[in-house]
Amino acid sequence: MSLFSEVSTTDLVTQIARQITAAIVAGQLKPGERLTELQLSREFGTSRAPVREAARLLESQGLVTFSPRRGFFVRTFNATEMRDIYELRIGLELHAGCLAVERATEADIAGLEAQLSLLYQNQKGSQASLETQMFEDFTFHRMLCKAGGNARLLKVYDELAMEMRAGITLIGKLYDDPQRMAETHEPIMEALKKRDGEELREALRYHIAVARDEVVALFHEIEKGA
Amino acid sequence: MSLFSEVSTTDLVTQIARQITAAIVAGQLKPGERLTELQLSREFGTSRAPVREAARLLESQGLVTFSPRRGFFVRTFNATEMRDIYELRIGLELHAGCLAVERATEADIAGLEAQLSLLYQNQKGSQASLETQMFEDFTFHRMLCKAGGNARLLKVYDELAMEMRAGITLIGKLYDDPQRMAETHEPIMEALKKRDGEELREALRYHIAVARDEVVALFHEIEKGA
DNA sequence: TCAATGACGATTGTCGACAATTGACACTTA
DNA sequence: TAAGTGTCAATTGTCGACAATCGTCATTGA
């Protein structure tokens, strides 16, 4: 059986990149694992050329690394890199938040509230997989960034989100209490509704710093174990 | 004569990407211009494969755009995009500045002061081309970001810097008074030496906002003219 | 005159092939 | 035994070729 699900109808390179990305953030391809061009091309039923281009694309997004003459490997993260990623996220999201305070439409805010209620619903069915939780959480924060109205910022945020997902998958746990997870977003929502930039910054800073500390701590454990 | 200078001794794809990048930020390749694979491959004396990979790399960096079945084009910027870029830069650089306040070593600060004196020297010989000025200016700000000690942030900043260079080249003017340009960096330097985060943020915010307003205004003019 | 159509050249998308390089493993030698 | 050496399979780097597609431009018809 193939690791990758079926393709749809767009650019082949993009498709391949998407599929590899999905396999990485889902943890099917493990960090450090080698991506053999020939093997992947057989998986996709193509030649090596589009696979190489897709891999280069992912390299630029930080999901795979590349060594000349050795090939592509699923990127590994260490604690320092994860700290940098979350630290950068703080900078980006606080900035986006300030912009959103000025630019967010009522529709943006309504959308965020809807998304927040989704976070709460996740716990009821308890069917909510770690993956679903993670996705809904990221969606909330992405919507906030989008409300900032800066397309370039959003692009960076999306790349960062991919790396965070890949890193978190590596850990496995996290997100153990969906109820609390949803609640921690309330102060953010409140500050935005009041359009209070300073309060929003503080709420976001705290919220993300907590996540950062958790993730970084877990990575330190992993490194000690390894 | 070739647009591109001679190569050195590393990975071919990287080399090609570097050369195309140089041609773009130097304005030899104009925005909207088509990048024909065959033509470029002849320029470099290679086949199309490495050129394609290099172009895809540049696409991910935002220097060229790509339309399926139509090929690669030097990216065009409009006023909104330039605003977004500078706005994002503000967020990044202020964040990096705050980190630098805590993490910058004495060597970092000494390096920044040396770079600042370079900015002053630029005017003496008056040989200082627009390109040199721009480069020295960017180097200063990059060093500041580097002093923040966040590799991931620095990577984003570098990509952004490329886009800014490409955009500024498109304008042509700017940087007309080297003396004043150097002086405007003093408040930044002062705040960092005092390790006063809030003051540094304000100095940077003002400094970059001025640049942003100039650039965006010039782009609005261009758009009106076009 | 102008819009629609069709053919053609130019360019991209993908492929399979071959040379160059790497890493591993067996083999020699002290 | 341990270090060094040579060989070999596996993989990457690059190439040239061909089919698919796009844009252009002349032609046709009203």
Automatic annotation (TrEMBL), chains A, B:
<dbReference type="Pfam" id="PF07729">
    <property type="entry name" value="FCD"/>
</dbReference>
<dbReference type="Pfam" id="PF00392">
    <property type="entry name" value="GntR"/>
</dbReference>
<dbReference type="InterPro" id="IPR036388">
    <property type="entry name" value="WH-like_DNA-bd_sf"/>
</dbReference>
<protein>
    <submittedName>
        <fullName>GntR family transcriptional regulator</fullName>
    </submittedName>
</protein>
<dbReference type="InterPro" id="IPR011711">
    <property type="entry name" value="GntR_C"/>
</dbReference>
<dbReference type="InterPro" id="IPR008920">
    <property type="entry name" value="TF_FadR/GntR_C"/>
</dbReference>
<dbReference type="InterPro" id="IPR036390">
    <property type="entry name" value="WH_DNA-bd_sf"/>
</dbReference>
<feature type="domain" description="HTH gntR-type">
    <location>
        <begin position="10"/>
        <end position="77"/>
    </location>
</feature>
<dbReference type="InterPro" id="IPR000524">
    <property type="entry name" value="Tscrpt_reg_HTH_GntR"/>
</dbReference>
<keyword id="KW-0238">DNA-binding</keyword>
<keyword id="KW-0804">Transcription</keyword>
<keyword id="KW-0805">Transcription regulation</keyword>
